Amino acid sequence: MDTKKDSDQKSTYSKAAYAWLMTVTSYYKRVSDLGINIDELMTLNTVAANWLYKINSSDTKSLEELKGMSSDEIKKYFKGSKLSILSIANILSQPKESIRRRVQKLIDFQLLAKDESSGIILGENYTKIMGGFGEVTTKELARLVSNLNEVKFVEEVSGVNLIKKLK
């Protein structure tokens, strides 16, 4: 048994775990700074993921383009798919009533809206508030990836190094 290799792998894992936990902790703290909780953010993220899926199906957008979208531009990407409270509840494996309360709070904050033809959609404050949040999250994600690359974490856990040695 190669104890040096075992020691290196343990060290790599602990550094990667620390980087991950610091990223998640920062994310959690920044969510509460928005005045919503993590469950409400996950509800919001589910609606935003639907929007981004629709955008990516036809085109891709930069962060600046997403932040600059008007309510009418956002609405057009929700056409043809009616996202309901029940759909969100199923996606998140949460009770429908809990999702209904979260959606209502997010509507009150104008982060979400109800549309007769499209169901639950992003509200007029979404890009204003979430744009800055997204910028910080992007930087933190980049820092996490950099930290993981620095300790060669992905190579270790995916077996890339083992495959290279076998060649």
Walk me through this protein's architecture.
This protein has 167 residues and is mainly α. The protein has two domains: 1-33 and 130-167; 37-124, Arc Repressor Mutant, subunit A, CATH 1.10.10. 74% of the residues lie in helices and 5% in strands. The chain has nine helices and two strands. The protein has helices at residues 3-33, 38-58, 63-67, 71-78, 85-92, 96-108, 126-150, 153-158, 160-166; strands at residues 112-115, 119-122. A hairpin with a 3-residue loop joins strand 1 (112-115) and strand 2. The relative contact order is 0.14.
Keywords:
167 residues; mainly alpha; Arc Repressor Mutant, subunit A; 2 strands; 5% strand; globular
TL;DR of this structure?
This protein is mainly α and about 170 residues long. The chain has helices at about 5-35, 40-60, 65, 70-80, 85-90, 95-110, 125-150, 155-160, 160-165, and strands spanning about 110-115, 120. It is about 75% helix and about 5% strand.
Structural class by sheet pairing and helices: mainly alpha
CATH architecture of the largest domain, by name, is Orthogonal Bundle
Write down the overall mean pLDDT.
87
| Approximate shape | globular
Number of strands: 2
Query: For this structure, what is the CATH class of the largest domain?
Result: Mainly Alpha
* Helix-strand sequence: HHHHHHEEHHH
How would you summarize the topology of this molecule?
Layout (H helix, E strand, L loop, with lengths): L2 H31 L4 H21 L4 H5 L3 H8 L6 H8 L3 H13 L3 E4 L3 E4 L3 H25 L2 H6 L1 H7 L1
Antiparallel strand pairs: 1-2
